[in-house]
Design a protein that fits this description.
The complex is a heterodimer of chains A (90) and B (603). Helix content of chain A is 92%, strand content 0%. Chain A has 90 residues and is an all-alpha fold. Chain A has one domain. In chain A, helix 1 packs antiparallel against helix 2. Chain B has 603 residues and is mainly α. In chain B, helix 1 packs across helix 2, helix 12 packs antiparallel against helix 13 and helix 13 packs across helix 17. Chain B is elongated. The chains are: A mainly alpha (90), B mainly alpha (603). Chains A and B meet through helix 1 and helix 2 of A and helix 23, helix 24, helix 26 and helix 27 of B.
């Protein structure tokens, strides 16, 4: 009985960790989606202005978002791969 | 003075000048006198914390010493009015306190009676106005010197010169009024005569701006039997009350302490006057006894008047001198200092001190209050208000470029009113709370303290920038004006972006990642600005001197933006949520931000 209880606790611990990882991946996906939306919004704003100073602002923002998205996609891929490796039989 | 009131006063004065040359002279005299007061005050300020302050402190640290100081000064200057005026300016400059000031007034009241003895005994009258011209010449000479102390001496001498010149102009303009004063016209027996002559004495002294002149008039009139001896006594009492008008005029240009002292002078002399009027018979007998003991002939009314003048001032001193502190309390009640409206903390509650999380949240909310005030000051410097941020870019640019925007906003006054009190309260609250707590709350408070510091720095930078912003806004060099407008526009744009960032936090629209764009745009704007300045210099559209001013001011612009952003980051972001942790992974470091700026620049 004691061993059974211990195993249950161990299972729950690993599940929490798994759940947290899954949640983290979901958060990242949401962020990437929001970034994509933001990118489109900025492109629209940039098309509406002739102001050099503002265009430069928008360009900078766009470039920042591109780098952030790139970073996000890379992190997501790494997390997915790690998850796959952990799940694969040794 | 209120602007609307000024609009009424100026035409009224102009009409008065057109009607009467005497009125013009009197008004000019009062103006020169008040200008002298300002100059005197400025001169004394140069010595605050220095030799003069130490001398004054040593010579006036007790009531009796102040009394002695006043007595000696009035005896030497032969004018209690001038002594009281100088004392008013000492008080205004913060060199003396009210207790010492009142002590000096008592002393000068007695000191000035030596004048009556001189007039009665030797027929002398010291004309202080003759000192005006040399004082002005020496004063101006000293004002043009570079040393602070010498400049101070210059302002004091010029101030004294203007005071005397002002009095001289007032006297000159009233000269024909003075010549029409025939004291025998008012000859009346009994109480009626006593009161009438007291009023005549007051009016004559106000008009002639000298109690000595009234004394001279009285002594002459009594010696030729134009008036009775009893009426002459009333004239002397009136002169003693009328002499306070000099200090009252001076108080118009003084602060509340100066006004209180002028009030004290009037109060003391008026009360003494009433007291002596009530006991005039007894005083008459006392004068006879003292005069007889001094060997003054019973028929020598002039000398008896001098004795009376000294005696009743002495009586006033004996009655009121022991109650200086009570007088100060009364004057503080009568003349209440109007304090400027200062923003008070809204969220700092001492009872929350036992709950660390509540304290952190209170300090955060109060710091946001300070942030709002800082933004108000910065926007007002560029002629805008917060609601203008909602306008579109063109309208915003137009507002910044408007000519009436160059009206200088008083940043110092804004800081005193909107920042200083709050900042001090926050710092005091943090210091009380900080050291007793767990590490996490202490570090949060320390971050909040830093955020407040950034806000104060941003205001200081705005103040530095304001000088040239005002100067070049009115410049004929359009290129320079355009660049300064650009600086203002970029700062305002940055504030608007921070406002957007606050909305991003509320809408959970990746606030942490928005910060990277803001950081990059600070760097980008700075680079663009420097490049534009270099081009303008190369193309000779602006001088290298203007260029260097622009470079300095663009550094202030960068500093303002950075400080505001750092403060906003601490004040508005909550980085403990799961989403914030995921966002944190995607934020860019300095090198990555620099790379982005470089990429955009080469596009």
């Amino acid at each position: 009985m004691k061993i059974e209880k211990l195993l249950h606790k161990l299972q729950a611990f690993f599940d929490t960790d798994k759940h947290k990882k899954r949640q983290h991946i979901e958060e990242l996906k949401k962020i990437l989606l929001k970034l994509k939306k933001k990118e489109r919004k900025i492109i629209r704003s940039m098309q509406q202005t002739d102001e050099d100073c503002l265009r430069k602002h928008y360009q900078t923002e766009l470039e920042i978002i591109r780098v952030q998205r790139k970073k996000g996609i890379e992190t997501l891929q790494q997390l997915k791969e790690r998850k796959k490796n952990l799940g694969a039989p040794s | 003075m209120h602007k609307a009131l000024l609009l009424i006063v100026i035409p009224l004065l102009s009409y008065g000048f057109w009607l009467s040359a005497e009125f013009k002279g009197i008004a000019a005299g009062v103006s020169i006198f008040l200008f002298g007061m300002l100059s005197l005050e400025q001169g004394f300020k140069a010595f605050t914390g220095g030799v003069l302050e130490r001398i004054l402190q040593k010579t006036t640290d007790t009531s009796w010493k102040s009394f002695g100081f006043g007595f000696l000064s009035a005896t030497l200057m032969q004018s209690s009015g001038l002594v009281s005026v100088i004392t008013v300016s000492f008080l205004s400059a913060g060199l003396l306190d009210l207790v010492a000031g009142i002590g000096i007034i008592f002393g000068s009241n007695l000191g000035t009676t030596t004048g009556a003895w001189l007039i009665a005994g030797l027929g002398l009258k010291v004309n202080i106005a003759t000192y005006a011209m040399p004082l002005l010449v020496f004063g101006v000479l000293c004002v043009f010197q570079s040393g602070k102390q010498l400049k101070g001496v210059g302002y004091i001498l010029t101030g004294l010169g203007f005071l005397l010149l002002g009095i001289h102009y007032m006297k000159e303009s009233f000269e024909h009024v003075e010549s029409t004063i025939n004291l025998s016209e008012f000859a009346m027996p009994g109480v009626k005569g006593l009161l009438t002559y007291t009023a005549v004495g007051i009016i004559a002294t106000i008009i002639m701006q000298s109690s000595h002149a009234t004394m001279l008039l009285t002594i002459t009139a009594v010696s030729v039997h134009q008036i009775t001896y009893n009426n002459a006594l009333a004239l002397v009492i009136g002169a003693n009350i009328g002499t306070t008008v000099t200090a009252i005029i001076a108080a118009f240009g003084a602060n509340i302490q100066g006004k209180r002292l002028a009030g004290a002078h009037l109060l003391i002399n008026l009360c003494t006057g009433i007291f002596v009027l009530l006991l005039i018979k007894q005083f008459g007998i006392a004068v006879d006894i003292i005069s007889a003991s001094l060997g003054i002939a019973a028929s020598d009314n002039a000398m008896k008047l001098a004795t009376f003048h000294s005696l009743f001032n002495l009586a006033g001193i004996m009655i009121f001198f022991p109650f200086i502190n009570q007088q100060v309390a009364l004057l503080e009640k009568l003349f209440i200092e109007k304090r400027p409206v200062i923003f008070q903390p809204k969220y700092l509650d001492i009872s929350a001190m036992d709950f660390p999380e509540t304290v952190v949240e209170s300090v955060r909310l109060e710091s946001i209050h300070l942030y709002e005030n800082a933004i108000h000051i910065i926007l007002r410097t560029f002629g805008l208000r917060k609601h203008d941020l909602q306008k579109n870019d063109d309208a915003l640019k137009q507002l910044i470029g408007q000519d009436n925007n160059s009206v200088e906003y008083n940043i110092d006054a804004g800081y005193e009113k909107r920042i200083k009190g709050l900042y001090s309260a926050i710092i005091a609250f943090i210091s009380q709370a900080g050291f007793t707590w767990a590490m996490s709350q202490s570090s949060k408070l320390s971050w909040l303290r830093e955020a407040n510091k950034h806000l104060v720095e941003a205001i200081k930078d705005t103040k530095h920038l304001q000088k040239n912003w005002i100067r070049f806004r009115a410049s004929r060099n359009q290129a320079a004006t355009d660049e300064y407008n650009k600086i203002a526009y970029q700062i305002v744009l940055h504030i608007r972006q921070i406002e957007d960032f606050r909305h991003d936090i509320e809408d959970n629209e990746l606030p942490l990642l928005s910060l990277d764009a803001l950081k990059a745009s600070i760097r980008n704007d700075d680079m663009q600005m420097n490049r534009a300045i270099e081009t303008l210099i190369r193309e000779r559209k602006i001088t290298p001197e203007t260029g260097s001013s622009l470079i300095n001011d663009s550094s202030y612009m960068r500093s303002i933006k950075k400080n505001l952003l750092k403060a906003a980051e601490t004040l508005f972001l909550h980085s403990d949520t799961g989403a914030a942790k995921a966002e944190q992974q995607l934020t860019l470091n300095e090198t990555e931000i620099n790379d982005v700026v470089h990429t955009v620049d080469t596009q």
